Amino acid sequence: MADVIEAGAARADAPPPAADAPRGGARAGRAGRATPYLFLAPYLLLFGVFGLLPILLGLWLSVHQWDFQLPNRPFVGLDNYKELFSSDSAVYGDWWQSVRATAIFTVFAVPLLVVVPLGLALLLNRSFPGRTFFRAIYFAPYVLGVAVIGLLWRFLLDANLGLVNRIAGMVGLPADTPWVTAVPWAWVSLVGVTVWWTSGFNAVIYLAGLQDIPQELYEAAKVDGASAWERFRHVTLPGLRPVLLFVITTTVLASANVFGQSFLITQGAPGTETRTVVWFIVEEGLRDNDAGRAAAMSIVFALMLAVVSIANFRLFRYRED
Amino acid sequence: MTTPTRAPAPAPADAPATGRAPGGALRRTALYATLVALALVFLLPLLWMVITSLKTYTGAQQIPPTWLPDPISGYGYEQILNNSANPVLRWFANSMLAATAHALLVVATASMAAYALARMRFRGRGVLFALIVGTLFIPPTSLIIPNFLIVDELNWIDTLSVVIVPGAASAFGVFFLRQFFLSLPRELEEAAVLDGANQWQIFWKVVLPLSRPALATLVVLSFLTNWNDFLWPIFVLFSPETLTLPPGLGLLQGSYVTDYPVIMAGAVLASVPVLILFVLAQRHIIQGVSRSGLKG
Questions:
Q1: B270: nearest CA in chain A?
Q2: CB B25 within 8 A of CB B31
Q3: How many Cβ atoms sit within 10 Å of the Cβ of residue B172?
Q4: Radius of gyration of chain A from Cα atoms?
Q5: What average pLDDT does this structure show over B162-183?
C-alpha cells in the first residue's frame, strides 16, 4: 500500500548525476560497459515479466474477447469498455454496484483513517515513559494479515456469539445488532475494523512528520500567546501538509482496493451490496472466465484512482499557494 | 473493564504537538488512562483470539460468551494439527518457505539493481529509473488478471513459485535501497577502488555490509507482506498441499463453519511468526514505514 506514493517523493530528488566516476579513466577499466546491465539483469527479468508485460497484456486483453474456454480471442475494439457504461448490458448493474460499494467504503473510511491516527500521533508525540511500548501496541494489528483480521472480526461481530454485542449489552446498548448481515451495520463494521487494523500505520507516518516540525515554531507561538488549539491550527497542521498529502493519497488508494474485509467479514452481504470492485474484477476474470472484460474494468478502475489522486495533489498544491 | 471495541476516541483537543510532559498529576493520570483504554481497544480483539483458541467447542458456543476458557483446552490446536483434510502445518511450512524465499529474492535483485542505479553511469539509466518508479503509481490489483495469464502460461498455477516470484519485482525495494545507497559516503568505495576492487567486490564487501539496516528493513517488510498476502494466493493456489496459510484459513473457516476454537487456533498460528518478527524488528519496521513514507 505504501508503495504508491514513494514515487511522489521520488520526483523531489530526481537523480542528480552526482559525482560519478571522479577519476573516469582509472575507473572505466574496472567497470566494463556491461557491468551495470549485469547488476540490473536479475531485477529487470522479473520486472519485465511481472511488471511491464502485465501492463501491455492488460491493454491488449481489454480490446479482445478473451474467454478461457474459447479457442479464438477476437478483437472487439472498445466493446468491453462500452458494456461498462451502457445500462442495457449484462454486466452494467453488478459493475456499478461494486463501484458504489467501494465508493461508500472509501468515503467513510478515509476521513477516519486521516483523523484518528493523527489523534494517536499527537498523543504519542508527548514525551512520557512507555511511549515506545504504546506505539508498538497501536501498530501491532497492522502486522497481521487480512485473513486473520477477517476471521477474527467475523467472530467478534457475530450477532449472538460475538464479543462486540456482549460488550454493547454490558454498557446498555442493544445486544443484538446484525453487524455483518444488514446495512448500515455492515458498513459500520467494515470501516470500523479497517480503522482498528490500519490506524497504527498512519499514526507512525504522522509521528515522523511531527518530529520534523521545528520546536522553535511552537515556542515562538507560545511567546505570542497562542492557545493550544491555535498552535495546532497554525503550526502543526501547516507543518504536516506534505505528510497529510501522503497519508490521504495512500489511504484513498488502499481503501479503494479494499477486498479481504468484505470478502471475509460481510461476505458481500446483504446480497452483493458490500462486494467491492477488486472482488468483482477477479470474480469476472477468474471465475466467470472473461479476462477481456475484467481487464477493461481494471483499466477503468485504475483511471478512476488516477483521477482521484491527481485531484488530491492539485487541491493540496493550490492551498499551499 | 469494559471498552467499546470500535472508534477510538480522538486525542484530547488540548494535546499540543509539543514534546513537553503534561504538567500535573491529574493530567498525567488522564494521559495514561487514555493510553491504556486505547491499548485495550487495540489488544482486546487479539487477546480474544488467543482466549477462544483455548476453549472447547461448547465453551465457545456459550451465550453470552465467557471471558475465560474453562477448562483451558487444547481442542482447537489438536483439531488443526491432526487433520489430513486441512494440513495446517503444511500450510505453515509453505508460508514460511514462500515468505523467506520471496524476501531473499526481493533483497537480492533489488539491491543489485539499486546499486547500479545509484552508483554507475550507463545509457538509459534515467529512463529505466523513471519506468521503475512509474509502476509504483499503478495499483497492483489492476494487474491481477494479466499476471494470472502469465503465470498460467509458465505452468506455475498451484505451485509455490506463483507466490514467491511474481511479487518479487519490487519497484519499492529498488527505490528504497537506491535512496539508501545514495546516502552512503563515497570515500570507502574510492578506497576500495584504489585497492583494486572491482564493482562486484565493492558491492559485496563495502556497500552491502554498510547497508544492513536498510536490507533488514526490506527483508522484514517483504516477509510480512508475503506472509499476509491473501488476494493473489486464493486465486492461484488450490490443492491442500500447496496452500499458504491465508487461503488455508479461509478453507478452514469453510470446513468448520462455527467451530471457533479451531478457526482461532489457525489464526493464532498465522499470527505468531509475524508478531514475533514485529517484536524483534519493531524499530526497523516502524522506521522503515515512516522513512519509506516521507524521507524517501
A1: A148
A2: no
A3: 23
A4: 25
A5: 94
Residue A317, pLDDT score: 72
**Closest by CA position to B201, among listed B189, B213, B211, B212:** B189
The grid coordinates of residue A231 equal 498552535
Identify the three-state secondary structure at position A75.
strand
Is A214 an 8 Å CB contact of chain B? no
Given an 8 Å threshold on Cβ–Cβ distance, is B42 in contact with A200?
yes
> Could you tell me which chain A residue has the CA closest to the CA of B280?
A136
The grid coordinates of residue B10 equal: 480522538
Nearest to A168 by CA among B44, B2, B39: B2
CA angle A268, A270, A275 (to 5 degrees): 25
Residue A267 has pLDDT above 70, yes or no: yes
At A77-105, the pLDDT tens digits run: 999 999 999 999 999 999 999 999 999 99
Q: How confident is the model at residue B97 (pLDDT cuts 50, 70, 90)?
A: very high
What is the three-class DSSP state of A67? strand
Residue B293 confidence class, pLDDT cut points 50, 70, 90: low
pLDDT confidence bin for A160, thresholds 50/70/90: confident
Instruction: Give the HSE-up count for residue B65: Cα atoms under 13 Å, Cβ half-sphere.
Output: 29
- Say how far apart CA B253 and CA B267 lie, in whole Å: 10
Give the DSSP per-residue string, A267-299: TT-STTTT--HHHHHHIIIIIS-BHHHHHHHHH
A84 with A92: CB under 8 angstroms? yes
Kindly provide the ipTM of the predicted complex, given to two decimals. 0.87
Question: DSSP class of residue B244?
Answer: -
Interchain proximity A195–B275, CB inside 8 Å: no
